[in-house]
């Protein structure tokens, strides 16, 4: 029997199939330029954006970045700060960002998982227990000291408005700003053990405490550092390890420290919950009112549902920002 060599095209397809099974490949995004009236890049003109970056949510992160620069009037004035887990290595993530956005200004910072490993309690959804999910509490120590204000964004969202509008929202005397949802059932975020203990429930006695989503925040890092707010959050996490007072990952410590003390932001800047609840991830509609940011918080993610050909109607609004190359795409 004669053993013939497989055709070159077949080899390429086999190699490509193996590679794409483990590596996501993305199209290069177009370059976006500053408008004529943009200020020159200074500390006050620069918009600092912080995001976590990992392989699991990389596709969402790429879409989020693309949406930010596409809708910015001054995209060349944006600097991205990406926080990655030190346990995974950042070389592939750095290469992906560099090839997808060759003109992007960014830095990558390692986050040591052991920083929070002993503080994390199991929550209602395993994805919320990832150490990197807690990196937002440590931004003040991770980012360079000269970064005074930062916009923190989750990876499962897209902007359809200029991020400078969000970054320039006045904080007044507050440490952070975020949309508040005072019609939400605030008691839901803490256990009966918390509410039945007066020494704990009195935490909110002198505040008009409302729920806010920590996936979109504007943070004054100078004030955060001065107030040692990372330590305040850690103290609640330490208590949680001894006495279970909440169920929902990294959110409740933020509520315990900041609820009722934040600067308000219009709801248009976090149309959240599009991923459904934390259990079933059912489809949801937009909240009433204008939209500047769409956020698929919850269990369902648009790229997963689109790939499964079971999308929710609003997932079509995320799809235009998806830069993932189709299978067997050989363009450079």
Which features would summarize this protein structure in a list?
single chain, 332 residues, alpha/beta, seven-stranded mixed β-sheet, two-stranded antiparallel sheet, 11 strands, disordered N terminus
Outline the secondary-structure elements.
Layout: H1 8-22, E1 47-52, H2 58-71, E2 78-85, H3 91-100, E3 106-111, H4 114-117, H5 139-142, E4 149-153, E5 157-159, H6 163-167, E6 176-178, E7 180-181, H7 192-196, H8 198-201, E8 211-212, E9 216-220, H9 221-227, H10 229-242, H11 251-258, E10 263-264, E11 293-295, H12 302-307
Parallel strand pairs: 1-2, 1-4, 2-3, 6-10
Antiparallel strand pairs: 4-9, 5-11, 6-9, 7-8
Helix pairs in contact: 10-11
Would you give an account of this structure?
This protein has 332 residues and is α/β, with parallel strands linked by helices. 29% of the residues lie in helices and 14% in strands. It has twelve helices and eleven strands. The chain has helices spanning 8-22, 58-71, 91-100, 114-117, 139-142, 163-167, 192-196, 198-201, 221-227, 229-242, 251-258, 302-307, and strands at 47-52, 78-85, 106-111, 149-153, 157-159, 176-178, 180-181, 211-212, 216-220, 263-264, 293-295. It has a seven-stranded mixed β-sheet with strand order 3-2-1-4-9-6-10. It has a two-stranded antiparallel ribbon with strand order 5-11. Strands 7-8 form a two-stranded antiparallel sheet. Strand 1, helix 2 and strand 2 form a beta-alpha-beta unit. Helix 10 (229-242) packs across helix 11. The protein starts with 7 loop residues before the first helix and ends in a 25-residue tail after the last helix. The model is unreliable at 1-22 (pLDDT under 50).
């Amino acid at each position: 029997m004669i053993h013939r060599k497989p055709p070159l095209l077949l080899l390429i397809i086999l190699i490509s199939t193996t590679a794409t099974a483990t590596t996501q490949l993305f199209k290069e995004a177009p370059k976006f330029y500053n408008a004529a009236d943009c200020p020159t890049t200074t500390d006050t003109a620069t918009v600092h954006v912080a995001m976590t970056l990992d392989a699991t949510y990389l596709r969402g992160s790429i879409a989020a970045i693309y949406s930010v620069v596409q809708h910015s009037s001054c995209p060349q004035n944006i600097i991205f700060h990406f926080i990655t887990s030190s346990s995974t290595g950042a070389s592939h993530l750095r290469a992906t960002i560099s090839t997808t956005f060759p003109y992007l200004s960014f830095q990558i910072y390692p986050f040591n998982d052991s920083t929070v490993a002993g503080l994390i309690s199991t929550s209602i959804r395993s994805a919320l227990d990832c150490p990197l999910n807690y990196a937002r509490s440590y931004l003040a120590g991770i980012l360079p000291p000269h970064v005074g204000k930062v916009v923190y964004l989750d990876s499962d969202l897209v902007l359809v408005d200029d991020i400078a509008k969000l970054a320039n929202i006045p904080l007044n005397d507050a440490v952070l700003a975020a949309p508040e949802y005072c019609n939400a059932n605030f008691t839901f975020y803490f256990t009966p053990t918390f509410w039945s203990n007066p020494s704990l429930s009195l935490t909110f006695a002198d505040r008009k405490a409302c729920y806010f989503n920590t996936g979109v925040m504007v943070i004054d890092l100078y004030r955060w550092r001065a107030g040692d707010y990372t330590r305040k959050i850690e103290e609640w996490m330490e208590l949680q390890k001894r006495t279970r007072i909440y169920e929902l990952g990294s959110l409740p410590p933020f509520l315990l420290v900041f609820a009722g003390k934040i600067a308000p932001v219009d709801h248009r800047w976090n149309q959240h919950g599009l991923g459904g609840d934390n259990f079933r991830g059912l489809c949801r509609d937009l909240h009433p009112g204008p939209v500047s940011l769409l956020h698929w918080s919850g269990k369902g993610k648009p790229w997963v549902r689109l790939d499964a050909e079971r999308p929710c109607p609003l997932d079509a609004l995320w799809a235009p920002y998806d830069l993932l190359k189709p299978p067997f795409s050989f363009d450079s």
